[in-house]
Design brief:
- Helix 9 crosses helix 10.
- This protein has twelve helices and 14 strands.
- The protein is α/β, with parallel strands linked by helices.
- The structure holds zinc ion.
- The site of zinc ion has 5 residues, from loops.
- GO terms for molecular function: hydrolase activity, acting on carbon-nitrogen (but not peptide) bonds.
- This is Amidohydrolase family protein.
Length: 399
């Protein structure tokens, strides 16, 4: 019989659309949740030798989901330079350490959107087999980019439609969970296209999405400029990463292309803003006007009904691994209530990433991915940082 755990707290929040349970409990059998409800009812179902964890002043929540990380990156170093000096085995060990740090911060699922040589897939499998402890990893492998394009140094350069097909086929054989494509330039590859410029044509992007969907894989598209975002909306990607509606160059403002945001909303294409966990220093660096405008654009997108998911781009500058709890405070500036932010970072993200049938909620039969915090994160999002216990598929970790 698997080890049974009983976790009790002053409040239990099972996820979007549920009412918090006062004086509640969660019963865990092996890797799965077996019951959630009022403490006396759940206690009655526990075996005599159950292991107990009691947090009368705390709140039990579903574990957090970081929808955009790079385990291969160290936020204190320049990625191309740092990676040049690391062999695969050393890099894999560093990635495992970073995944462990994220787990201790309450992140029980992460989507890695760009590794080197499929190392995030290897790490995912080692964790899933129980060879290492860590969060559930969804891995994109190495992102597709044109020759010399954004993040070319990870090894995913492709030119022309035949190479695109071959690359997606080999990523599928490797077992990736999602295809990542660099539709626009980015900030960490200074010699490539600018963040607001398209790198692939709209036709190439359509082809990438079509091939991926034939192979039953969603596409996560990195796109900053409005023109790139419009191509993503038309091609039918699953998530648009960053989605900053940059208006430099020939890119219009979001206000001039509300049709694009409406199309995203209509097709259920999510935006993952992927602001770094130290978003405050990014806002400072952008300056008051640009920062205010960046927030306004996110609010606009949300008002139109574009679904948002949580992500931190962990591994890039200003974004340490495990920084999601602090990063989520940004969403208070979008006018989101703490419980809406929690729903975004749990239930909504699980649904968007295709794992909504086993993660993102506390319910019988779901994976036992659980976070316990002191205080009341449903009304005060900063309480997410007062963590007491993390469970990843039934295995306990102390923050
Ligand atoms: Zn990224």
């Amino acid at each position: 019989m698997p080890q049974q755990l009983l976790v009790t707290a002053g409040e239990v929040y099972p996820g979007r659309g549920t009412t918090p349970i006062t004086d509640g409990a969660v019963l865990v059998d092996g890797p799965l949740i077996s019951a959630v409800g009022a403490r006396p009812d759940i206690e009655a179902r526990a075996t005599a030798n159950v292991a107990r964890f009691d947090f009368p002043g705390g709140t039990i929540l579903p574990g957090l989901i970081d929808g955009h990380v790079h385990l291969a990156f160290d936020p204190t170093q320049d990625p191309p330079e740092a990676l040049r000096h690391l062999d695969d085995e050393t890099l894999l060990r560093e990635m495992a350490d970073r995944a462990g740090a994220a787990l201790r911060a309450g992140i029980t699922t992460m989507r890695d959107l760009g590794d080197r040589g499929g190392l995030a897939v290897r790490l995912r499998d080692e964790i899933a087999r129980g060879d290492r402890s860590g969060p559930r990893v969804l891995a994109a492998g190495t992102p597709l980019t044109p020759p010399g394009g954004h993040c070319w140094f990870l090894g995913g350069e492709v030119a022309g439609s035949e190479e695109i097909r071959r690359r997606i086929t080999s990523l599928t054989e490797l077992g990736v969970d999602v295809i990542k494509v660099m539709v626009s330039g980015g900030h960490i590859t200074p010699d490539s296209r600018k963040p607001w410029e398209m790198q692939f044509t709209a036709e190439e992007l359509r082809r990438i999405v079509d091939i991926s969907s034939e192979l039953q894989l969603p596409v996560a598209a990195h796109a900053h400029g409005t023109t790139a975002i419009a191509a993503c909306a038309e091609a039918g990607v699953s998530t648009v990463e960053h989605c900053t509606w940059m208006r430099i160059g020939d890119n219009p403002e979001i206000e001039e292309r509300l049709d694009v945001a409406e199309r995203m909303a209509e097709r259920g294409i999510c935006a993952c803003p992927a602001w770094p966990s130290d978003w405050r220093s990014l806002l400072d660096a952008l300056g008051a006007d640009v920062g205010k405008r960046a927030i306004e654009k996110m609010v606009r997108m949300r008002d139109i009904g574009v679904p948002l998911i949580a992500g931190t781009d962990a591994g890039v500058v200003r974004s340490e691994h495990g920084g999601l709890p602090a990063g989520l405070e940004l969403y208070r500036h979008l006018g989101m209530a703490p419980h809406e932010i929690l729903d975004m970072a749990t239930t909504d993200s699980a649904t968007a990433l295709g794992i909504g049938d086993r993660a993102g909620r506390l319910a019988a039969g779901y994976d036992a991915d659980i976070l316990v915090c002191d205080g009341a994160p449903l009304t005060d999002i900063t309480a997410l940082q007062a963590q007491r216990l993390v469970l990843a598929r039934g295995t306990t970790t102390r923050p």
